Structures are given as structure tokens and as C-alpha cells.
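Reply to dn_fold:

You asked what the input looked like. This is it:
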Amino acid sequence: MIFSVLHERVELFPAYAFTDDKLQPCAGLQVILTLFDGKKNDWGAAYWFAGANGFLGGKRPQDVLRINPDEVLLAAEDELAGVTHG
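and this is what came back:
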């Protein structure tokens, strides 16, 4: 599973979402996008992957995805949990 955004009638795919050889989606991406299904549209997912994330120590999910997809998954789960108070 992959996502794209439409910009000026051109469908764009994020390079970070693919393996280095560009043939397959990165490990863990499908699970994250399944979590976002119905909660974030393609642009919402794109913004989330591109934004600094406190759960990832200020790093962007797109920069961590290939290195540690499990951490990005946890950050996505945290994103969907919203604000929680203990």
C-alpha cells in the first residue's frame, strides 16, 4: 500500500515511502497507512510524515521510516490517540 498526492493534476508519490531500489514500499508503511485510513486523507498523511514529531525526538517520520519503521508506527499510534492525560 502506498499513497500519493495530487498537485496541479499530477499524481506525486513520496520517494521516502519506497525502498532504496524504488521497487517496493518501505517496511511498515502499509500498517501505518491502514491506521490512518478514514482518519487522514493523502495530504494529511503527507503532512504528518513531513512534520517534526515529538514522539520521534523531533525527527520527521519520513526520515525515520527506513531506519526504524516500528518507531514510526508507534508515533502514528500516538498521533491517533490524541491528547491523553494520566
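Residues 69-81 form the longest helix (13 residues).
Hope that clears it up.
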